[in-house]
Structure formats: structure tokens, C-alpha cells
Amino acid sequence: MKKTLGVRTRRFSLALALATCFGTAATGADDNLFGMPSDDSAPIYRTATLNSADAGALIESEPSASDAVDSGGTVPLKDYEKLLGRVGDLESSWEKYQDKLKSEADEKKKKPTFKLNGRVHLDNWNFLDSDAGINQLETGNPADDPEDRWDFRRIRMEFSGDVPGNMEWRMQIDFNNPSSAEMKDVYFGFNELPHNQVLLIGNQKRPIGLDHLNSSRHNVFAERPLAVETFNEDARRLGVCMYGFTEDESIHWRYGAFLLENISTDGRYRGDFDEAGLYGRLSASPWCDDISGGRGYWHCAIAGSVNQTDGDGQLDLDQNANEARFRTRPEARSDSRWWDTGRILGAEGYQQLAFESMLNIGALQITGEYFTTWMQRDALGGFNGSDLTFHGGYLFAHYFLTGEHIPLSRATGTISRVKPFENFFVVDRCTGGTGRGWGALGVGLRADYLDLSDSDIRGGQGYTVTAGMNWYWTAYSKIQANLVMGEIENAGQGRSAVPLAAGIDGDFSILGFRYMIDF
User: Fold this and answer.
1) Bridge partners of 484?
2) Are strands 58-61 and 75-76 parallel, antiparallel or unpaired?
3) Which of 21-35, 174-188, 324-338, 448-462 has the lowest mean pLDDT?
4) H helical segments located in 274-419
């Protein structure tokens, strides 16, 4: 097949360059050139030169002996043809190699991919002070106070990948209790849908509560706020959800339908009453300072849900339980939930509305959320049947003493991984002494409020104040320290199946540490 002008020119240029090096070396010889005399008696031989009229054509000439050695303008025709052949072989070999790489890449696209990740979070919680009311909520005995503890909060393995045909999958299992593993994210779905959308089917987070949608790897405080955990307990449920964002990533949305029962320990849903809800979240980042690398931004969002519950679910013979219940721990890993409405008999359904905001200016971030839940019910089991309203929220400020910032992922409307300016390390110097890096250090203060007491339901009303410190060793490891102080009033409903004549009050203080790493 006839070579194009460009191919011939490329080959000739390479051959000419090689010949130039070869010819220059020969010119420096004292007595001969290529084993031949260099005086006027040298024989005349044929050479090849480039035709100026056609960069891809060659003309033959018979120069004089004095022209036999040039600074590179001519080369022997035989050598040129030999070099040109070698260039052709190299080019052919390179093309075959590229074809092989493309073939291998195309073959890989026909097979599912696999990726392994994980995280380990080790906790130490110390219940510094609690009164009789707190003891009652924790152990059921006013004289038995909460026990200090060391717990593996998370030992999580994550497997994920893609499937040919624009599909993805993820499986996340937590072994924090080795005898009873818990299912977390377990889903599959379709990506690269129109309008930058992804559709996921399986166990996944319901889209309400910023601090729940953030990864536990990145959150500022060890445990999530009272209201976030209360109104979206454990977050993940079996359902189908659509995720998407605009081209400039300034607006993000999630919406889907979920069953209300938590199936993380058995992976099964049984019952004749399908308790389920519709959830949605619309977020935006109208200001993001890209010039500074995202060190300045404002994020805001609105989220909500509409849920149908089985108010008599614990009185009939169905296997499904009544999911009209709201509860949480005191921002530490206690044995019991101190704020707890119990399963609210007669509940027909409830609706939720939540607002969230994040303002980040350099090393400072201010974040807050507020939730309201309205529940409708019929009289059942001695309760009066009136409608209920529960609400709560939080506000915190966090500041990096070392100057870093908390990044924002605009495409998901959540925070991302903090990257210290320098990692923590201590090493010996070759010249003596030691070298050190201190990592990143941040401090924060959070105020929480939660009210789960309304009408004849005494689920608890109170607040906490949490002082926190984060010491980032690397972008993938850190220590968190939290001091939690608070009080609770009109609580105790979770320990009773009938209305209480009076609630339980108490004060507490807790000190906790978390040692964490992910990969």
C-alpha cells in the first residue's frame, strides 16, 4: 500500500537524523570514512537527497568525492534504504503495541471491575457524671450508672465497582460486632444517565440530614447531632433513589422511595403492611470560590419526607413492627437511647421538613440544621390520639488552627476529605536530630436541642453542648476528642408501653476519644 506524504516525510526525517549522527562521527576520523580513503582518490558513490519540490520524494545523484562526506545533507542510498526499513519496522511494531493496548482496554470494559476500601474507628467513652435520672434512662436502675467503655465503632469493609453497560455496585459490611455483622450500603444501579443522574436500587441512605449524608470519615464530631440521628435513625433503608446535579455542579438533588424498617442485621422485610416513605433533598452552593481552591463557599438545602406507618403493628400478628418511633443516644455510645418516644401506637403517618446550611470562609466553618416532624394518629392502647409535633436542630462552628479548610463536594452536596498541609511524622535526620510534622489541628463547638415530648408522649426534651478537637495525622487518619455536657427532661417513654404520669429528668457529662483510619 502506498505510503502517504506525511508518513514518508516522518520516516525520512528520522532516517536523516540517524544518518547525521553517523556521518558526523565519520567526519571526525583522521584517515578514512567508513573504511574508505578520505582523499581525492576516494571512489564516487550514489547518494540520496531530499527533493525540495517534493518533501516525500527522493532523487539520486552522483556527487564528487569531496561531497561524499557532508554535515548531514546527504547519506548513502544503501544506508538510507536500510535505515528507512528499520524505521518502518519500528513504526509497525509500535502500531501493533498500541493495537494490543487498545484491545486489552476494550476487553476490560467488558468485565465488571472491583475495588476494596475500608475504615476502622476505635472509641473510648467515659461517663464522667450522671444523676439518678440518667442512670434510670441508661440501665433502668437509678443507682446503676452508665459504664465506661472501649468499642470498635466501625470495622467496615467496602467492595465496589462498575459493570459494563453503565452500571455500578457497592457492598459495605460492618464488623464492629464480629458475632453480628451489619449491612450498610448494599446496592446496584445505573450511572451516566441524562442530566448527570444515577439511579440506585438497594440499601442506601435516605436523603435527609446533612450530617448523615456526610461520610463518617469526614464529620467534624465523633457522633452525629441529636436531631439528625433521631429523625433519620441509622439513615440507610431498602429503596430506590435518583441522584443528579447540574453541569456547573451548583445544584444537586436526590429523591426516592424507601421501606421504613431497618433490615441491616437480617436483610429481610416481612409483613402485610408496607410501611414506606417518599424522601427528597434539593441542595445548592450558590457561592463557591474556585480561585481559592474552594476555601470559601455557601451551601444550603431543603429536605423532606412523607411516611405511612402501621400504628397497630405491635398488636397484630404481622412480622413487621410499628416504625412510628424516634430515638437517639446522647452523642456517645451509650447502651440505651435516652431520648426515645417508644413505638407510638395509633400512628397513621408522619411528615418531615428539614433545612441545612454551611458557610465556609477559609479555616472557619459554621454549619446548622433544623428538623420538624408532624405525626397523625388514632387513639389506641390508652393514648389520647392527638396529633404530635417533634423538632430539633443544631449549630456548630469549627476552626483549623493550622489553616486548612473543610472541602465541599458540590456534586453531592456534602463535605469531603480534609488534606493537611503537612502530615504528622517524626524521623531521624541524616545530619543528626529529628524532623517533625504536626499534621492538622481543628477545634469545634456544637450546640444541640431536641424535643420529643408532646401531648401524652414523653420522649425527652433537652440539649447538649459538645466541645471537639480533631487532630489529623494524615488525610486518612486522625484522632477526635469530644466533651459532651447536657440535660434532659420529661423523658422515659421508651421504657413504657403506656402513657407516663411523669417524665424523667437528668444531667450528664461524657468524655470520648475516637482513633480512626480509612483506606
Assistant:
1) 466, 510
2) unpaired
3) 21-35
4) none
Of 422, 519, 401, 370, residue with least CA distance to 468? 401
Q: What is the DSSP letter of 166?
A: T
Which of 26-40, 135-149, 442-456 is predicted with the least confidence, judged by mean pLDDT?
Answer: 26-40
Q: Measuring CA to CA, which residue among 216, 188, 222 is closest to residue 202?
A: 188
Residue 29 has pLDDT above 50, yes or no: no
Q: Mean pLDDT for the chain?
A: 88
Secondary structure letter of residue 112 according to DSSP: -
254 forms bridges with which residues in the sheet?
243, 281
Task: Specify the DSSP element, H or E, that contains 96.
Answer: helix 77-108
Residue 121 CA, chain-centre distance (Å), reads 16
Rounded distance between C-alpha atoms, residue 240 and residue 197, angstroms: 13
pLDDT at 6 over 80: no
pTM of the model: 0.79
CA angle 167, 168, 172 (to 5 degrees): 155
- HSE-up of residue 84 (Cα within 13 Å, Cβ side): 18
User: Is pLDDT of 68 > 70?
Assistant: no
Place of cell 480561585: 291
β-partners of residue 158 are: 117, 172
Q: Higher pLDDT residue, 5 or 468?
A: 468
**Alpha-helix runs per DSSP H in 332-452:** none
Is the per-residue pLDDT at 30 higher than 60? no
∠ CA(12), CA(17), CA(19), 5° rounding?
90
Q: Which residues contact 354 (CB under 8 A, 6 or more apart)?
A: 208, 209, 231, 302, 303, 304, 369, 370, 371, 372
Q: What is the mean pLDDT of residues 411-428?
A: 94
3-state helix, strand, coil in the chain (%, to 5): 15, 45, 40
Q: Which residue has the cell 433513589?
A: 241
Closest by Cα among 490, 219, 133, 118 to 341: 490
Higher pLDDT, 517 or 28: 517
The letter for the amino acid at 492 is G
491 contacts 468 by C-beta, under 8 angstroms:
no
Axis crossing angle, helix 77-108 with helix 5-27, rounded to the nearest 10: 130
